[in-house]
Design goal:
It comes from Stigmatella aurantiaca (strain DW4/3-1). Residues 341-363 are annotated as: Disordered. The chain is an alpha+beta fold and 363 residues long. The chain has two domains: 4-232, P-loop containing nucleotide triphosphate hydrolases (Rossmann fold), CATH 3.40.50; 240-345, RNA polymerase II/Efflux pump adaptor protein, barrel-sandwich hybrid domain (OB fold (Dihydrolipoamide Acetyltransferase, E2P)). The chain has eight helices and 19 strands. Bound molecules: adenosine-5'-diphosphate and magnesium ion.
Length: 363
């Protein structure tokens, strides 16, 4: 049985307006970390607010450990839900010490127990000895961990995190994230993490759900969703891709790039996703006039540290191609394009079948 489930939940902020969350179904297993990702405005924060009890769904139910939190005739207020939440700005009480910030939600307990629990939680986050500090005397990463300790001290059944790392700089974000993940896993806390950062989602979560317009487009392990996106939107949102129309004949498809091997099987007209790392550009001078080679021209080159991202013109298409940082290719160079990975068959109809796929800004 799932720990938390949202069953066909709909919420509109204005009567008769568009639904911010639209028939959303989502499940969270005990101890699981789920990342909700999707473009700005797709309903991620609203979903968390529905779970926390800050919003009441128009239709649908929210259930935690078999107990109905929100439903047609039920609505449990936030303080009775055993749900913890940390927001992006993780506002600590500035006039309270670290210890008093963490004991804040524990007022039902005797003071001695409050302090013991808060200390234990701070210790877990590597903040033993910081009890008397005031928030302004802490770094951003330390403040973030105090906010997490505060949310976890009352022992929530689920912890909701809304863009909790986005105000930290890149280096601090990566270390704070893995530290927080380690602590949450050791506590076996179930977590829903909202982020617009796909790398963060893939690194942090056991499972992720890609949202669009108030609905879940696809959910699964990061590996499964990344390697087999259902449609162009998911492929584009998680890592970027190239869309190539083709005609499938089993485990291959005829395309303008030649015959591409497919992951899985299909027949007839298809739209394929070919990831930038499934393509390779080889400088033309390496080639000893290979017959049938795909000729390409480098249109742009973006250095990204561990690699380079090229745009290349080939067979009448503009393709995104990943390369090693040492690649000598520059805009204007001629190159040969090699397909090194398999293409994924998308659910979207190919361009000659109507209507065309709706993909915001495919790179
Ligand atoms: P996300 O967190 O994915 O960026 P939100 O859940 O904040 O998205 O918003 C979903 C939709 O609901 C957006 O269209 C947003 O403009 C709208 N919305 C969010 N909060 C409110 C509000 N308090 N009143 C009216 N509309 C809102
Ligand atoms: Mg949001």
């Amino acid at each position: 049985m799932p720990l938390l489930s949202l069953d066909h939940v709909t919420l509109r902020y204005t009567a008769g307006g568009t639904a911010a969350v639209d028939g959303l179904c989502l499940e969270l297993a005990p101890g699981e970390t789920l990342a909700l990702v999707g473009p700005s405005g797709c309903g991620k924060t609203t979903t968390l607010r529905l779970v926390a009890g800050f919003e009441r769904p128009e239709t649908g139910t929210v259930t935690l450990e078999g107990r109905l939190l929100s439903g047609p005739d039920a609505f449990l207020p936030p303080d009775q839900r055993r749900v913890g939440m940390v927001f992006q700005d993780f506002a600590l009480f500035p006039h309270l010490s670290v210890l008093d910030n963490v004991t804040f939600g524990l007022d039902a307990l005797p003071r001695r127990e409050q302090v013991a629990r808060a200390r234990a939680m701070l210790e877990l986050f590597g903040l033993g000895g910081f009890e008397a500090r005031m928030p302004h005397a802490l770094s951003g990463g330390q403040q973030q961990r105090v906010a997490l300790a505060r949310a976890l001290a009352p022992g929530p059944r689920v912890l909701l995190l809304d863009e909790p790392f986005s105000s930290l700089d890149a280096a601090l974000r990566a270390t704070t994230r893995s530290e927080v993940r380690r602590v949450l896993k050791s506590l076996e806390t179930a977590v829903v993490l909202v982020t617009h950062d796909q790398q963060e989602a893939m690194a942090f979560a056991d499972r992720l759900a890609v949202m669009r317009a108030g609905k879940v487009e696809q959910a699964g392990t990061p590996e499964a969703v990344y390697t087999t996106p259902r449609n162009a939107f998911v492929a584009w949102f998680l890592g970027g891709t190239n869309l190539v129309p083709g005609s499938a004949f089993g485990n291959g498809a005829r395309t303008a790039l030649g015959i591409l091997p497919l992951q899985g099987e299909a027949k007839g007209p298809v739209l394929l996703s070919l990831r930038p790392e499934s393509l390779r550009l080889v400088p033309d001078r390496d080639v000893v006039a290979v017959g049938g080679a795909l000729r390409a021209e480098v249109l742009s080159r973006e250095f990204q540290g561990p690699g380079v991202e090229f745009t290349a013109g080939c067979a009448g298409m503009e393709l995104t191609v990943r390369g090693g940082p040492e690649s000598p290719l520059r805009p204007g160079d001629r190159a040969r394009l090699e397909v090194t990975g398999k293409a994924v068959v998308l659910e979207d109809p190919p361009p000659d079948a109507r209507p065309p796929p709706e993909v915001p800004g495919v790179r």
